[in-house]
Amino acid sequence: MGNNNKIVHYALIGMCLLTLAGCAVGPDFQRPAPPDVTGYTSTPLATNLNSSPTMLGDPQNIIKGERLTKYWWRAMSAEKLDMLISEALKRNPTLMAAEATMRQAHELYAARAGSTLYPQFAGNLSGQRQRFNPETLGQTGEAREFSLYNAGVGVRYTFDLAGGNRRALESLAARSDYQQFQLEGTRLTLVANIVTTAITQASLKRQTEIIENILRSQENQLELTRERIRLGHEEPDDALALQTQLEQTRAKLPALRYQLQQNDHFLAVLVGKAPGEGLLPSFTFADFTLPPKLPLLIPSELVHARPDILGAEALLHASNAEYGVAISKLYPQLNLSADLGSQALTTGALFGGGSAVWSLVGQLTQPLFNLGLPAEKRAALAAFDAAAANYQSVVLEAFRNVADVLRALENDSKRLEALSAADFASEKSLESAQRRYSLGATSYYDLLIAQQQRLQTELDLTEGQAKRLVNTAAFYQAMGGGLCDIAGSARNVSEAQSAERIALR
After folding, report:
1. Is 155 a member of any domain?
2. What is the CATH number of the domain that holds 36?
3. Which domain holds residue 480?
4. Among residues 323, 298, 94, which one has the least CA distance to residue 186?
5. What is the mean pLDDT of each run of 10 residues along the chain (505 residues)?
6. What pTM, to 2 d.p., does this model score?
7. What pairing do the DSSP bridges indicate for beta strands 333-344 and 144-159?
């Protein structure tokens, strides 16, 4: 009967330990509630953007409820840009560094899981030479020397009574999620930078061509003015004024060419190449189109689609788990260790005729007086509060970014409409000047002035066309770049790790 009572007693103790080991102190993480806002701006937005009868003036509609695809840039350009981005995704060193950091985070989680969730086994083999003198024990006899060999296996395991190890694993998993979202954000930024740089290249090339045409027209105008001065029909000061204007125009060319060269260098580095390493595709406005539909995510969807917001949420999750780790240190900790081996005077007898030796040690420790542990708990809580504030800040900045992009789309479409109208008017004015010149009703001098006015409106129009393309790329980036649709994305990894954590519990 006594043995039965002991068995029941030990069974109850084991059940209590297992029950405690299945709990984890500290609050379980709750995802932040979706924002209680329905729009991004204080006044209604125009969902149908203004269209213009010019290149890249196509109508665009902002549509709620649709999601982006991971290849969003294909809606803006053809194969040339897609090939460039595919190469960059393979070669860009910043992206490769982010991928390596993500792998490191995954392995740190695996390392901590392997060292805390399962018992640790270690084999040991030792040998020593000893000299024994019987006189030390009050006995007679001569001193003897002998060898002693030991071989055994040791087992160590710490019962996670308060769940501190599980909370630590939860924190590492959340930080692994964070690195995954960092990778997605790096990838999105890389693609958006390539698209924007390609658009800028097309714009700068067109601006350079227009400035060169203006310069040639001004040179003709100056030459004609000098001839009129020679004939006594103009004052010398008129030539000086034109010379000043011409040189100011000429000074714009080196700056534009430098911007274009600098832009090309940046594009090469984005692709993962040195600026002098081969030629990259060259882009013009003809290589781009405006997608007719722009899928807009509502605020409650955006917080689950942007990698910066998801990353801030992962850090909040990690801080919550680390607060649980700090609390667990205030609770008891149970360590078990066991050793089983053999001891012999010769190596031959070690695994056959040696003496069996074993030990079993259990140790329960409870902090009684340690002022550092409560302070550590308060510090962890403060870190959680900071992470919560950081999350709110990231969400607000994301909403501001979306609001800015939406307003830019709206206002720049109106601006392009006005620039298109001005371009149309200047074109008609030039045609009128050409007709009058062909009829002898106006001078070649006046025709040159009309040409320059026409070229200046083309210059402004080029800037407006580029802005619409850049705003469209910024819109896709602000919407998260289709993160939800990327295979193997951070969300899939996060869900897989959550399932793994549940299974380990």
Report:
1. no
2. 1.20.1600.10
3. 30-118+171-332+369-504
4. 94
5. 47 47 78 90 90 92 84 88 94 95 94 88 84 74 77 86 90 95 95 96 96 92 84 79 90 96 96 90 94 93 93 96 92 87 74 76 86 92 96 97 96 96 93 86 83 93 96 95 52 46 40
6. 0.85
7. antiparallel
